[in-house]
Amino acid sequence: MEPVNRMKIEFSSLAANVSFARVAAGAFASQLDFTLNDIEELKVAVSEAVTNSIIHGYQNDPAKIIELSAEIRCETLVLAVEDRGLGIDNIENALQPAYSTDPERMGLGFAFMQSFSDSLDVQSLPGKGTRVIMTRACRKEATPQQGH
Ligand SMILES: Nc1ncnc2c1ncn2[C@@H]1O[C@H](COP(=O)(O)OP(=O)(O)OP(=O)(O)O)[C@@H](O)[C@H]1O
Ligand SMILES: [Mg+2]
Questions:
Q1: Whether the predicted pLDDT of 3 surpasses 90
Q2: Which terminus of the chain has a smaller tally of CB atoms within 10 A, N or C?
Q3: What is the position in ligand 1's atom list of the atom closest to the CA of 86?
């Protein structure tokens, strides 16, 4: 089925664009009947994915480009963050909480993405790049129609 609405933006792999991406995703998500808390969680998930692309995928090279896209399908938001960077050798390991290839980091980004979405799909090929797709349904009950 065709999405009801969609957006796609590209931006430089810069730390300053983490907040840009989270605000853009949050603004797009606001079209659905999400609670403010839901939107905050979605923003955290997007921040984590974009930060991963900047740090791990592109190793802080600001010349590289990250793509954020979103679609609304049947009251469900589908968010995707994509880079054409280094890729992930072992996705199963990467998804484990507290797993990081960087000893300075906590290894919790994917854990946040997982808990703040209904489904998390990580597609990655070493040397090709990484695409993270998250879906989240809008569960708020529809307000009953006032009858006469
Ligand atoms: N876009 C990406 N490109 C390449 N590798 C990635 C990418 N995203 C994640 N990874 C790999 O997956 C691992 C786990 O990611 P995760 O976000 O869970 O933890 P982290 O980024 O290491 O730490 P934290 O998110 O807590 O700062 C990373 O250490 C990295 O090796
Ligand atoms: Mg991370």
A1: no
A2: C
A3: 4
* Distance from the alpha carbon of residue 141 to the mean position of ligand 1, in angstroms: 35
Q: Is the CB of 42 under 6 A from ligand 1?
A: no
- Is pLDDT at 141 greater than 80 in this prediction? no
Whether the predicted model's global pTM rises above the 0.90 cut: yes
Q: Three-state DSSP class for 27? A: helix
| Of residues 96, 79, 94, the one with CA closest to residue 133 | 79
Q: How far is the CA of 30 from the centre of ligand 2 (A)?
A: 25
CA–CA dist 124, 128 (Å, integer): 7
pLDDT tens-digit readout, 15-29 = 999 999 999 999 999
CATH placement of domain 5-137:
3.30.565.10
Residue nearest to atom 16 of ligand 1 (CA): 109
Report the catalytic residues.
Answer: 48, 52, 105
Domain ranges across the chain = 5-137
- Tens digits of residue pLDDT in 37-65: 999 999 999 999 999 999 999 999 999 99
Q: Is 92 in the pocket of ligand 1 (CB under 6 A)?
A: no
DSSP 146: P
